[in-house]
Design a protein that fits this description.
6 helices, about 220 residues, six-stranded mixed β-sheet, globular, alpha/beta, about 20% helix, Metallo-beta-lactamase, Chain A
């Protein structure tokens, strides 16, 4: 799978909250419409950044259902009546107070931000409905892949076998030049490339699932 980097794109990475979360603002410079990925924490700051840059939120997308990635959703929805998207496998784990406002997605579904196509990749493993966002050559990975590491699988719904498949097969379709934008600032750098991660990230160097299973332990994981 290849991506094009020849179209204008607004993308802002904001570190927010108590757990070094990254929130992403993805927008179309032609229409000034923006997608907010994982609005957890500091909603005022997120919305202020959009306003200062001349964008308005038109939709929300959740990489998964863990509280640190979604605790600002209700606050956003109180101010903006916009659609929310999550993988269908994740819907039952979202808060009942706003779950009915969420549309369930399937692997390979596409959204449109303004006039920009956004592809959704279902990447289970951290949670059953974890998903990543691919727009041009940029991949927002949530808690599936970090710089130098990957998401933990010892929480409810986690599956090391599924995560291995997501990292090797799903990401295996993407070019080395694909830019990686993780869900937390846990690495030496806030962003990376898939090529650099394949070279340096031990979790991406396990071709055999058995080797990956031996590496994946909760000890010291975030």
């Amino acid at each position: 799978m290849t991506a094009s980097a020849d179209r204008p794109l607004y993308l802002k990475q904001l570190e927010v909250g108590l757990m070094q979360n990254f929130v992403y603002l993805i927008g179309d410079p032609a229409t000034h419409e923006a997608l907010i990925v994982d609005p957890g924490w500091e909603v005022d700051r997120i919305l202020r950044a959009l306003e200062q840059d001349g964008y308005r939120p038109t939709q929300l997308l959740l990489s998964h259902s863990h509280l640190d990635h979604i605790n600002g959703v209700e606050d956003v929805l109180e101010r903006f009546d916009v659609p929310v998207y999550a993988q269908k496998e994740e819907l039952e784990h979202l808060p009942s107070s706003w779950r009915k406002k969420v549309t369930g997605l399937a692997a390979g579904d596409r959204l449109t931000v303004g006039q920009l196509p956004v592809t959704v990749l279902h990447t289970p493993g951290h949670t059953p409905g974890s998903q990543c966002v691919l727009i041009d050559d940029k991949l927002v990975t949530g808690d599936t892949l970090f710089v130098g590491s990957c998401g933990r699988t010892d929480l409810p719904g986690g599956s090391p076998r599924q995560l291995h498949e997501s990292l090797t097969k799903t990401f295996g379709q993407l070019d080395d030049q694909t830019l990686v934008y993780p869900g937390h600032n846990y690495g030496a750098h806030p962003t990376s490339t898939l090529g650099a991660e394949r070279r340096d990230n031990p979790f991406l160097q396990c071709a055999r699932v058995e080797d990956f299973l031996r590496m994946v332990t909760p000890t010291g994981w975030r």
